[in-house]
Amino acid sequence: xxxxxxxxxxxxxxxxxxxxxxxxxxxxxxxxxxxxxxxxxxxxxxxxxxxxxxxxxxxxxxxxxxxxxxxxxxxxxxxxxxxxxxxxxxxxxxxxxxxxxxxxxxxxxxxxxxxxxxxxxxxxxxxxxxxxxxxxxxxxxxxxxxx
Length: 147
Known about the structure:
This protein is mostly helical and about 150 residues long.
């Protein structure tokens, strides 16, 4: 039978290991947002099951891996749209979205206006920031505490 102190220490170590994996997944999304990414590939890269990754990522960062990925893509799209050098379709492709209509829909949901309208809004005018439910998700909600 395992000693309770050792069991708690093992659980705490596993939580820290899982959190480190989650940070690597988040960092990968931040780096590779324009590439085709899906939860299964992210989970394989982290050595976790897809369902476990999704649940733990949501607990740590307040959003699913997919929602976090889309927020990063839309955040980058806002920058490209303000520069005005690319068409909406080119911005869509540059941030890794494969469907212009899905890009427009998701952008509108997260930013509060379609890309064509956003393009004409001066950068200093307040608008919703891209993110799940218009909330930033860059930092973890809570770090696991050792037991």
